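explain this:
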Amino acid sequence: MSMLGKMKDMYQLQKQAKEIKKKLKNIHIEAEENGVTVVLTAEQEMISVKISEEAMQNREKLEKSVMNAMQKALKKSQEIASANMKEVMGQMGMDLPGT
């Protein structure tokens, strides 16, 4: 394949990656743990954190719940991003870890 052809392919893949990134920004992931609810985008941007009155009664439990809810949401966002980027990365001849 010529250098021009490779450059054209790279441009198309970059364009696809940008479209996927835009799509990920619009996917919202919600995770709940013991009265703590966090919402992230699939790009791992924080949207909101909600804490119930019950959860606020025990500080130690609240802290653990916030961490666990965040970890759940982050893991799910990584899975979604990976699934969406897998096709583009495969076209570039790259493998994503865990795929």
Observations:
- Residues 59-91 form the longest helix (33 residues).
- The first strand starts at residue 28 and ends at 33.
